[in-house]
Amino acid sequence: MKTLRKLFYVACTTFFLASCEETYNDKLFWPGELSQEYGSYIKPSTLDLTYSGEKLIGKTVNFQTEDSKKGTLTLNDIIPGEKETSFRINLSEQEDNYTFSGETVSCAGATVKYAGSITPKTMKLDLNVTMPQNQWIKTYQMSELTRGRGKDVVRNQTTGEYEWGESDNQILTAALYTDMDLEMVKDAGSLYATVSVIIKGMGGYLLPQLLKSVTLESDGNITAEYTSDELQLGEQKFSEIDMDNPASQQQLINFIMMKLMFNTLSADDITDATQGRNYAKSPRGLAFWYLKNDLLYVKLNLPGIISLTMQGQGQTVDAHLIAGIADAILKSNPFLLKTLLGIVSESLDNSLLSMIANMDHQSFQMFFSWIKEGIPMQIEKENGHTHIYLNREALSPLIAFIPNLQPAMEGIPNFGPMLYNSYIGPLYDNWSIITQLDLGLDLTDKNE
Question: HSE-up of 57 (CA within 13 Å, CB side)?
């Protein structure tokens, strides 16, 4: 009897071992070898990722499998607006890897077509994404400058009080969209003119020199027809403006006084400034969009932008290293990052970093969330125009930068201090009485 029992134990053990042999040893790679995080910023890179055919760096993908037959693929911050996108895939064993392909719909409604291969050392993943259908997916062009009777701060002839009304020769549309509301105080008229005439006029003049069109692609990319040709003010290019040269200085002052302060800027002025400029299509994968809670979020791919900028300056750049640093920054504590930026700005004597580091904690928290989650922008359609803009809440951290402009403005003899004290500084000084301020792009559908 004891002998039979021993034989039974041996048989069970043999069967168990044989089952394990069949489960694992017949596989190209064991589940534990494949179950890991694959990244395109670590060295050596373990993730070769393309999005709509374009290489995308600085991303990670998690894969988990229990049997090397099926598994769960998790895309980390790859589909615009989705922190994680998980779906099941089937593995097909090949000679030296496993392949997979298919189509799924994410929780946010994006259609994701995927194809790839995987080994314990690398994953190749090709994604083609279609965002949920909506009215904003199209190509837009900059709005032209038009004038007519429009909103203005006027003085009531009976009461002598300032109130909202209408005036002739107002800038109705331009490439820069603005709208404003404020308490009716003594300086309300000049504050409104600063935004509706000077800022809107300058933006309407400069933006078309930079951008010809903007496209919200169906895959979540944002592309544009842009130019790096030098900007100009009137007859002078920026590099030709010499504040030590009286003639050059006078040309600049004449342009700002006549065209902006006296409100005579015309569509012909913009045509003259944009004529002959060379526009090109921007690379894909540098900026993405998604909709959430009726807001349009613009998410920048910082590693891609930094790498492209450095390459454009002729500098050698390790894109994966930059992506790794950016990932570490985004996972860090925002207040520790603020302290670090302060130290770096002092050593580099960088004014922009210094301004960011000197933000109050609330403003910096907002700035940090813009980098991490995307810039929340209002989007609306009105009278055939699409407005994409920042509202007062989003602009508050930027308004805090205004005092930093004062030293630069004071460097322009006579005219600079007047421009700052009369038009720019009051925006900061009177921010509390400005109840609404919208700044952004004024676009129309492009005729293909």
Answer: 21
Nearest to 214 by CA among 298, 307, 312: 298
Q: What is the pLDDT of residue 214?
A: 98
Whole-structure pTM value:
0.86
**pLDDT at residue number 18:** 46
Helix or strand or coil: residue 266? coil
Q: What pLDDT score was predicted for residue 10?
A: 47
Q: Token pair for residue 158?
A: 């009976």
Q: Which residue's structure tokens are 């997979």?
A: 100
Query: Crossing angle for the helix pair 392-399 and 361-373, nearest 10 degrees?
Result: 120
User: What is the rounded distance in angstroms from the CA atom of residue 406 to the CA atom of residue 401?
Assistant: 10
First to last CA, the chain: 90
Q: Give me the residue label for tokens 């994604």.
A: 127
Positions of the chain with pLDDT under 70? 1-26, 42-43, 310-326, 328-330, 332, 340-341, 344-353, 355, 412-415, 448
**C-alpha to C-alpha distance for 441 and 174, rounded to whole angstroms:** 9
Q: Measured between alpha carbons, how far is 36 from 34 in angstroms, rounded to an integer?
A: 6
Q: Which amino acid is at 245?
A: N
Structure tokens at 118: 């995987």
∠ CA(222), CA(224), CA(228), 5° rounding? 135
